[in-house]
Amino acid sequence: MSTVCSNKLGWVVDACSLIDRWYSPCVRFKDSQKSHVKCRFKKQYFRILKSYYNVRADAAVDGGNIETLQETSKLSKKRKRKHNELNQGELDSQAFHEKIRSAIMEGTKSLVDSARSLGHLNGETDPVKEPLPSHECGLAALCEMAKELPLVDEDEEEEQGERVQSLVAEDGCTSHLDLFSRVTENREDCATVVTLMGEDYVIPAQTAFLLSDFTRIEPLVHYGSRFGLIVIDPPWENKSVKRSRRYTSLPSTQLKRLPIPQLASSNSLVVTWVTNRPSHLRFVRDELYPHWGVEVVAEWFWVKVTTSGQFVFPLDSHHKKPYEVLVLGRYRSPADEATGWSPVPVEDHRLIVSVPSALHSQKPSLSEVLKPYIEPQTKCLELFARNLQPGWTSWGNEVLKFQHSSYFTFTNDEEEIHQDETPNSTAFSKQ
């Protein structure tokens, strides 16, 4: 089960269960040989058992006490700034929080109570004490190196009759793939474990991807598909990312270069993940969407809770908030203006409540909660993706990051196969 429960306020989502559904069944291609395996995402990444800061009782979802993972004595010793010492960005953030606070508080409590009545979000009874492993992702660096290689021009593509390539050749071979300048498709009806660039990756069924940055996005435009749902997870600039150097951030104005009008179909639903910085939210609403011809229709919130259903951060924390914002809009082309425009209405201020991943920047899939707002059989696209979804097309310079085999456990003939290398995991407090 991936959607645990829902009501008029939103949904409670089991992100890990949905991921596991994507990889059943699964086959492995090794040395042109095909074998069946059972594939599961490691559940330890979704065992967020406790809140990361002490909170007052009234800040907890259920009014109870939240245990801590970090010492807070240093925090209490810090001098609290007076209200008039806050800068304009902090004042704007506080005003936005006060505006939505009651909706977050009441909606989360309602949804968590519903989930608990079904046996979910009642806490882990047998937590795994295995530490989270560490491994660096080098995909972005490979994209930088690929810039030195010439792109296949359109005339050559026409002569070859292909602008895309199959992940697995007829002989089962996955070598000699150009992942940086051609869209790659897994045309299998099941998930596939393959070796790419010397590493093993798990690729969902009927998915397509392009591993590149802005300088190599043309193959996606030339792919020939128009998408009725486009989800964007930009690498926003912020101090935490700059200090950690986990990924290369992007100035907000550069997002205008995304070719949304060339990728969106009529009445396409465009969804953008936004940090809690008011300047980013204003930019999306007032500059980015109008630049693309997208009309804002709603703001939703992803609320992060522990396995006990409590906020991962205190709701009123000045340092971190337990929620992130999604801005939803509809793309309006000139043709839509001429023929009339009657998209499916989208309700405002809905909540998506889930236990987050401990892995930095791994967002929950929106595929199920957005189904009512798009047409059946709609083609879906994720930009700045770090993982793949079955039936979707994905683009980004780390598009295979969370597909690395070391994030998964494989079972073959009842023998569990543990990977020698394990992926990078960073503390959740860095999200």
What would you note in describing this structure?
With 431 residues, the chain is an alpha/beta fold. The protein has one domain (3-430): Rossmann fold, CATH 3.40.50.150. The protein contains ten helices and 18 strands. The strands form two sheets. The chain has a twelve-stranded mixed beta sheet. Strands 8-7-3-4-17-18 form a six-stranded mixed beta sheet. The chain is globular.
Topology:
Elements: E1 3-7, E2 10-13, H1 15-22, E3 26-30, E4 33-41, H2 73-77, H3 88-117, H4 139-146, H5 154-160, E5 164-166, E6 183-186, E7 191-196, E8 199-203, E9 207-211, H6 218-221, E10 227-232, H7 239-244, H8 260-263, E11 264-274, H9 278-292, E12 294-304, E13 323-331, H10 334-339, E14 351-354, E15 380-383, E16 392-396, E17 408-412, E18 415-417
Parallel strand pairs: 2-14, 3-7, 5-6, 9-16, 10-11, 10-15, 12-14, 15-16
Antiparallel strand pairs: 1-2, 3-4, 4-17, 6-9, 7-8, 11-13, 12-13, 17-18
